[in-house]
Amino acid sequence: MELKSAEPWAPHPKAAPVTEKRGDAFAVDANGTRMCSGGWQWRYDGVAPGQTYEMAAEASHQGLAVPRDALKCIAIWGAPKPTQERPDAIWDYLLPQAVGADRVRFSRRVLAPENAGQLTIRCALRWTASGKTLWQSPCVAIASTPMVKRPPVRICVVTGHAHARRGQFKSVQDNIKFYGNLCETACRKLQPRLIVLPEVMLQWGVPGSALDVAVPVPGPETDAFAAIARQHRVRIALGLYERDGDAVHNSAVLISPDGKVDGRYRKVHLADGGEDVSGILPGDSFPVFDTEIGRIGCNICMDTSAAESSRMVGLNGADFLLMPIMGDHRADRWTRGSPIHNDDRWRAIMRTHAMDNQLCMVVARNNAQASCIVDRKGDVLAWNDGDQDFIAADVALDDGYRIWQGGCFRDVNWLQRRPHLYGAFTDPANVGSVK
To answer: Is 4 assigned a catalytic role?
Structure first.
């Protein structure tokens, strides 16, 4: 592409920083007011729609308290005016990375959208009355390897319907047979890439303490599902009480299409009122696993009521959050008595997790009712009223969802963050409104 122009930009004359061309570099210095916002923009012609471009811009800085906060760089697929605050075009963040104590590099591989003919790289200095930056001219080139759109992933939540005669189950083997048969049927009918099973489904309803019925992983009990995974080339996530030496965990185990256990998540937030003092040991991390269908993380049941659980899975880069779950106390009655499930609140909880963390929620409830698949836009793609043995949906990984003013949902969700302000988030002495 051909660089056609380089010009200062600012949303308002009072906000304009001090800009100057210095040799081959472009200076953006604060103007002494906290209104300061603006910088340079470089316009290129000759964009090929559907082409993959690599772009980068680097800046050195002095006197900025929080460079990650004060500097921003975006790619605008158009030619905005130098006084235009909001681009009237599709735009993408370039991703910041500190490359030294006083340097930040912004870069990205981006697919040019349909109908794009021009590209503008726009940098900004903002939210500071002091400090100086010096930007190098951006580098824009056709990528050596084009970005390829990933196909949708068919996901199946296997629970059995709400009135299945689970009360007759007396052993782990009963559960293996019940859920194994359902998985076989779902594979034959739907050919899913991923099956998600409920919380502790291997031991659900089996008499005895979790400390007595827990099983090792891998082991004979998971081998039955490993065989199904190999036969149907499907990935299976199953819930169980896992024995690990002298500890027992409430775990979600990820079995690959070749039948191997290649991931496990151990429930971090054990349910208050029993599980937390049962002898079960909580997990201590929120791993995300790279797989052939995308990046997968898990929460289990009580994890859902701690916003940090899904947030950590999102921060760790997941495309999917798998949620084996018995219920959510927030989606039940708020008075003493037998539980009464509330579908509306359940939907609100799961949709919020999906949108706040820009991932697909896959929720497998033990009694089937309210099991669901929710995409990152918050749309419910599949729902079980309790009368189905399994539900399924095709989930688009490269969906192109953008907010009304042209930015990508996922970009805005993560790049708008200001982590240096979130210290209370991890302060162990903070108990919120409980005083």
So the answer is: no
